[in-house]
Structure prediction request, 294 residues.
Amino acid sequence: YYNSNTIIYLDGQFEKAVNSSTDLYGQSLHYGYAAFEGIRAYKTHNGNRIFKAAAHFDRLERSCQLANIPFPWDKQELIAATYKLLQLNKLKDAYIRPLVFCHPNMKLNEPSGVSILICAWEWDAYSGNKLLKLTVSDYERPNPKSIPMEAKLSGNYVNSILATTAANIKGYDEALLLDMHGFVAEASGANIFLEKDGKLFTPSLGNILPGITRATVKELCTVLDIECIEKKLTIEDLKNADSAFLCGTATEIAGIASIDDIVYRPLWRESLGYTIQRAYKNLVLEKVNYEVII
Ligand code: PMP
Prediction:
């Protein structure tokens, strides 16, 4: 992720990653009390472009608000700093990771102060057309009455790491998690869509991260005249679906081959997911201008 030349952005300063440090007594390090984002930049014919930068920094602020973490920064300045960071590191297709973390405080009360780190690394676009093998995890997504699941908080990702590790040990690519009522929630780091009878379905908001890619898929559905329905989805719905895909900033649009013993039979290239995958690619690479509508 970094080498001796890598530059990071920390509280208004650009500095070498190897010369930066954090306090070992920080509340974030000890309790996972921090908020972060995962953003992508693409090399397009219009230059290097950060996809939906404003939406990501808005969600970062919202995550902090939901967790009572202060957010004393100007989001436009953060976006400008992120572009400068890409330039300083000569990054083109990149993954960008802003992290708001809390200063030393061993107590379980409000933070003594906050910092913002932004780092970035080269990350090739598109995992390609590899279809994913999923398993329904024994781990559930946490109850939003215990922790705000609509916030992208570091501590929430302990659940994601446990589920992914267990899935990988069993030979699967990804874990699919249910919510506390047994409805389909999301994968450990991506949202899910199902196709049934020419329509798309995705779990409604409440117990999942409001994915920015999920929102983009919905916008693409409007442009492409595909009906997209948000509702509670069951394991039965997974079984009855014609095809399915995951979506997320890192995942982009990735087709699902199977979920445990459910195997999706129609060819991926004939699915709505494939149509969305191509449209998404054109959108992030600015090959088409869907922005008039989006
Ligand atoms: N759910 C979870 C748990 C995630 O970590 C992610 C990745 N941020 C997503 C969904 C997809 O969100 P986005 O499209 O904003 O990347």
Notes: The mean pLDDT is 95. The chain has seven helices and 16 strands. The two ends are 33 Å apart (CA to CA). Residues 194 and 238 are 7 Å apart (CA to CA).
